[in-house]
Amino acid sequence: MFERLREDIQSVFHRDPAARNMFEVLTCYPGMHAIWLHRVGHALWVRDCKWLARLVSNFGRWMTGIEIHPGATIGRRFFIDHGMGIVIGETAEIGDDVTLYQGVTLGGTSWNKGKRHPTLEDGVVVGAGAKVLGPFTVGAGAKIGSNAVVTKAVPAGATAVGIPGRIIVRPEEGSEVEARRKAMAEKIGFDAYGVSGDMPDPVARAIGQMLDHLQAVDERLEGMCGALTKLGSDYSGKALPALPEEDFVEPAAATPSDIGPH
Length: 262
Prior knowledge:
- The protein is α/β, with parallel strands linked by helices and 262 residues long.
- It has 2 domains: 2-169, 3 Solenoid (UDP N-Acetylglucosamine Acyltransferase, domain 1), CATH 2.160.10.10; 173-236, no CATH class.
- Helices cover 39% and strands 14% of the residues.
- The chain has 7 helices and 15 strands.
- The chain has a 6-stranded mixed β-sheet with strand order 3-6-9-12-14-15. It has a 5-stranded parallel β-sheet with strand order 1-4-7-10-13. The protein has a 4-stranded parallel β-sheet with strand order 2-5-8-11, with no helix packed on it.
């Protein structure tokens, strides 16, 4: 039990930069409280204490604004950020290291008995306000964008956005390109945070294409330097200078006191 508790706390520090200390996490994170109450409710549910399990679930909903049916199966290091308005249905199955943001619904599309809620495999991230509806699987490491409505299976490592949810990046399409862009960005000293193919942003796409171009130019220059060396040249290419991080920070708006008297 204490090992699971320690894992829960560490998962908060790993995924929420606002977390400052253990006492704050224990007392001020409703997502954690909802998970702990669910574990109690689920233990009662599997022991056929259905009414008492639902009572614990209802108490957790009242305390945290997060509704988790006691029949839902949840893995280790599950993290709920903010959490208000989250609904997780009875037959939902959640793997390890899954993250949900506020307003997420893991719901069903049928009144039939049996499996009617989604399965989220390990490492899935579901953005704020997203609705994942139906008895299908969201593959390991997949991402679901904010406010998306997903009613079909999502492959492992893919990203789904929009209404209805559509796959905008598949692992075979994005992983190699993304890794190459990240390597080039690190080489020239540029923080590629947010410059990702799974973000339908024209500026991000343009920067991504620039990184692709820089990668091609860099490879060509390395080839030319190698050819010159083989011909006996003592030419040695210099390392690229790092780009100052402050050059990519938007300057703060000037205040009247900064401008001075008119």
